[in-house]
Amino acid sequence: MNEGEVSLHLTETQEDELSTLLYDQKESFSTDKEPWRGIICHEADIILNIERPHPPLLRRPAYPESPKSREALELYIKELLKFCVVRKVCLNEEVEVTKPVIVAWNNRKSSMVGDFRSLNTYTVPDRYPIPKIKIAVTHISQAVYISNIDSLKGSHHNVVSPRARNHFRILVHCGVYEYLRMPFGIKNSPSHFQRMIHEIFPEELSEEWFVVYIDDTIVRYMTWEEHTCRLSRLLGKIQSVKMKIYLKKCHFGFLKLKLVGHVVSCLPNGIDKNKVAEVLLILSPIVKYLFSLLCKSMPYMIK
């Protein structure tokens, strides 16, 4: 329970109360042995705007890979198989749709993602409304205590419906694999997740102490007693629907917190300058100077 980040402004008594609360709700948190569980009654589906036979664009070969990327890819596939995120497609199964995968490297760390761009092109869009960031931030600012809870790779919490699984097949050098849980990069993934949250937590959202922007989940309240009460209620609900929270990415009892590029607190909200540092470094435009220079040079240009 010491993995989550706790505000330094909490008293010793408040820290003890929070520690007891988190321990009592320990089944809500992911572990190395069980990072995800299938959320009850919320299978992810997909509808295409084309009929069979599918166009060649939906059956793509694997991308060329370096030996280093192949090694990283094999480790990712092994981990996904271990946690039942994917399964290997058998030899006698018909394969109509395959997508290549991309292994991206950043500071010697690799990440794997399926190239679902062609699938997204033929996917019927889900128009379920996503909350506006400004409204979410305004709600959060009307609080003293703010806690942020986050899920580990939120998309993987959603089990893919059996009917749609054949659309989520990836092709790598070691075979064809089918996603059993929602992969990253799918067109309607944010809409599906937002709908699921609204269906699971309708009362909590209507009471406005619980704020969700896609996978950013915030609990806010004016008093510590009410805050811990609401937090306990939320974690209990999360446990009942078999959702898992990633404790290492959680923040508890803060007076000020960063959320989707904003710094929120009971004071006036502001932009997180670390997120817009590159923009702030851009020099101011010098249009007036150029216009003045052009006017001065016009007589010479006419001559």
TrEMBL record:
Q: Which Pfam families match?
A: RVT_1
Q: Where is the Reverse transcriptase domain?
A: 115-262
Annotated CDD domains: RT_LTR
Q: Which domain of life is it from?
A: Eukaryota
Q: Which PANTHER family match?
A: PROTEIN CBG26694, PROTEIN NYNRIN-LIKE
* Protein name from the UniProt record: Reverse transcriptase domain-containing protein
Q: Identify the species of origin.
A: Austropuccinia psidii MF-1
